[in-house]
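pinned: reference chain
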Amino acid sequence: MSVIASVVIRRRIPLAAGGCVLSFALFWAAQRAADVSMVDLMVYRAEGEAARTGADLYALRATEYDLPMTYPPFAALLFIPLTLLDPVDLRPLATVGNLLLVFAFVRLSLRLVGERRHARVETALWVSAVAVWVEPVWTTLRYGQVNLLLAVLVLWSLTRRPDHRWAGVGIGVAAAIKLTPALFVVFLLLVGAVAGVRRGAWRPAVRHACVAAAAFLGATLLAAAVLPGASRNFWTRVVFEAGRAGRAENTANQSVRGVLARLLHTPEPGAWWAVGAAVVCVAGLGVAVAAAARGERAWGAVACAATALLVSPVSWSHHWVWCVPMALLLWTRAARWGGRGRWAAAGGLALVFCSYALWWVPHGHGRPELAQDFGEMTLSAIYPLAAVGFLAVAAAVALGFPRRGSRVPRAGAGRPRGGLRRWRTSRSA
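pinned: its structure tokens
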């Protein structure tokens, strides 16, 4: 039986690979038809050029949109190799790299959710074929963004064994490139603290957090040694300039700050955002830590990611690539336990991120986002609303609802004729 199953799986993998390649090819054709400029990739290349030549990184204005440098100086060091290629050659290579990262991201997401039977290459290929059309992933590839790389680094760390020596390095490097993943360090420390209070195994989480902090510090010190002026400028001034990345009320800003700016019809929500972000951060981290402490590591990790995106000053729509593990987590739990509510939650979340609904409202020149009505504000807050819904489900999981095995089996299920009970055996048996 195992030989037959192996042959069937081997025959399915080429079919899944063909479907994935076809989807990627159609995606590439659609991107070329849309004549995408990959503007953020060009900004990265300009930042690498500035770092290589010693120019002022944070006085840089690149492309026709006059976009500034917003990342820490370590990111500029990583962008230096981009200057070795012409933009004509760089764009297709970056697209190929991001498509490969889509598959890696999906595979790690499936591993995180803990479903071994769903983590097969075949499943990862089919999910990748669909995930590339999700709005955050589409927009990431359209702009040539680094979101998939950062997510892969974080997920690689979170899916290592508890005793893995390098677990946490990916989180630290990702935080050195962009500060938002640093919230995972706080998450791991809190998980370790709760485990210690409960007399549980606190060392793995704390060790991962310490390794991540050490990796972040090492990368930051390296950047400070190579780019001392830029490092001093960033950590003393630029890091506090929340508006540097763009207008808060922009429809693409799917964070609490963006929602409040549109809700209050103001370009700067100020204290309202500080209070709202603090409340969401405490609540979201509480849910994430409670879920992880209960043994639901995947729920805790993805809840932490959702919280980080909500409280960040600017979370552009393409930052929400974490919708992929969100949807996969809901899907695998619905497949395991069944129930209309679980399937509705999984389908609803997938529909939100596949609908491109946030772009249905007026946006662009003239700042129309400051004059939105209730319906438009709801659509332009669709990602934060979905994240809050996910956190609510994660909170229910952390509290033990629904409990495992709560689904009532059908009458007579598991019993053959004659009333004898059928035994469930392991795969090896």
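why pinned: Residues 404-429 have pLDDT under 50 and may be disordered. DSSP finds 18 helices and no strands in the chain.
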